[in-house]
Every structure is written in structure tokens, then in C-alpha cells.
Amino acid sequence: MSDRDPPPSPRPSAVGGSGAAMATLVLAGLLVALNVVVDRSVHDVSQMPRLVALLAGLVVAVPLVALVPPIARRLDWRPLGDPIVVAAAAFLVATSLSLVVALNVSAGLTDVFRTLGSFLVLCVCLLVLPLDPAWRRRLLQTAVVATLVAAAAAGWEMRSLAAAGLPTRRAMEMAFLDGMMSNVNLFAGYLLLLLPWCVCAAADLRGPWRAAAGLGAVAALAIVVVLQSRAAWLALVVATMLCGVTLLWHTRQVRPSRCLQLCIGVGLIGGLITVLAGGWLTAGDMEAGRMIRRLFVSRPHQQAGPSDGGRTMVWDIASHMIADHLLLGVGAGNFTIRMHEYLSPA
Fold first, then answer.
1. Which among 20, 73, 263, 272 is least buried, having the fewest CB atoms inside 10 angstroms?
2. Residues 220-234: b if buried by 16+ CB within 10 A, e if exposed
3. DSSP H helical segments within the chain, as ranges?
4. What is the pLDDT of residue 95?
């Protein structure tokens, strides 16, 4: 071969293929497989079984990644020194040590295992994902699949309510209580976390993946509206407004078109006017105000209790508990154990 001959193109190595497989397996397990785990024989049919499944998977994944030489020698351990990893480790230590002052240690073990699971997931992702050069694209694709799976699960849970029209919030809560997604607010929050990934995938991916991402984004947004989770609605509005303000503030870096800037400005002004008008109508006795109160304030199935579901009472108890145990707290999982100490006698 002469000096002018181009160097031979590198052959695809098994390293890239195995790295892609590992990254895909981790992402698919966390975003898709884990969220279809259900055990109807327990009171909490989804959250606790998924925590157990996650910890079982980590028991296999962590030794496999850290101790098997063909994998361990290819890992870059430097990301584990990132400040976010250090902060997560400190939070895990603080959660574990809080059990020292807990009245009921077993009540805090769930929080400790949740924190441990989150920390280990963070570490495994930082180590495994860089093995795949296309991990960013893989992440977007997996998020799209996870959104479509979640939308299908929501449709299955709501199938019996669709024939009667738009269900009430109470009917939605009861339908989800023993299903694949056992909490309306948590499920709506999960969809909101997936929504930006679908939007990014629709902008970055090509072909069928772009269409699937658009479908997932529309489905997630529609389900969040139908679920009638006021916390999710508020989070969606605030996040949208913050994104709009960010785009307008960083026009030199993002370079949005004039039309997009105009649409964002009109949307922000319209949103502000809508919020102010809604507050004004709610305070009055007009039909529109009564409809807004029924949707956002009143809870017909809890008429005997406070209209806010007891949130302000819990916040008040939490503030007093923090003031009384400012440094050490009451221990992970022990808030409900100690709450009776701050309840006024009937």
C-alpha cells in the first residue's frame, strides 16, 4: 500500500454493538418494562412492585457492570465524580442516617430503598450509556416507545369510562386505583416528564420515529387533560410559560423565527389574561365561575372535609414539625407516624 492510499475504513467492532445493546437494554428496562409491572395481590398494585422489580434488576446490573472484566475495563468512571452524583450520594446517606432518630424504623425503609434505587440508576446510566455512541438518539426513541406504552395503558384503564363521555375526576381516580397506573397525579406527572422528550424526538428524529414522537406527544397531552389532575395542569402551564420566556430571552442562541417569537409573545400574554380572568370569574357568582370552581376547587366526593383535600392542614403540620425538629428531622417515612402529635383535639 502506497503512502497516498487512503487508510482502510475501520470495521464495525463488537464494542459498539455490545455497547448499543447494553444501552438499549438499560433504557428499555427503566422507561418501558418497569412501568408495566403490576401485582394485583398487594394493596399498592404498581408502585411497590415496581420498586421491588427495580432493585432486583439492579442486583443483577450493578455487579455485571462493575465486576465483569470485559465490561468494566471499557467503562469511564470519571462521570461518577460529577456534582450531581455527589449530591445524590449525600442525599442517600442523609436519608439512611435519618432512621437513627425515627420512632418507626421500618416505616422509613421504603424511602431508603427508593433513594438507593435512584442513586444506582443514575450511576448505571452514567457508566453504560456512553458505551453507545448513539445513546442520545436511543434515549429519544425509548422515550417515544415509553410514551406510547403509557398512552395505551391509560386507554385500557379508561375504556369502561369512555362510553359515558368525559368522566369525572372521582371516576378517574377509582378507575386508576386498582389498575396499571394506581395514582392519577403520579401518572399525569410521568406523562409530563415524557412529553418534552417526545417533542425533542419529533424535532430531531426522522422517518417513522418522527411520526411516532408526534403521536406520543399528542396522546400524552390529551391524556393529561382528560385525567383532570390539577397539579399536572398547573405544571404544564408553568413549564410552557417558562419555556416561552426562555426562548424569548435567549433569541441570539436559539434564533427562533419572527413568527415563532410573535406566537410565543401572544401565547404568554393570552395565558396571563386567561389566568387573571379565571381568577376574577371564580370570585363571582356567574355560571362560568361556578364551572371553574367545580373543576378546580370543589371536591363533591369529599364535601364533609375541607375543599382543598386537607393540603393546607398537612402543610401547617409539616411547618410545625420542621420547626420542632429543624436539624435532625423525624426520620424518613415517619411524617405520618408523628402527625397525630400535631392534630388539635376534636
1. 73
2. bbebbebbbbeebbe
3. 14-31, 47-67, 69-72, 83-97, 105-128, 135-157, 159-162, 169-177, 184-204, 208-227, 230-249, 251-254, 258-283, 287-296, 311-324, 335-338
4. 94
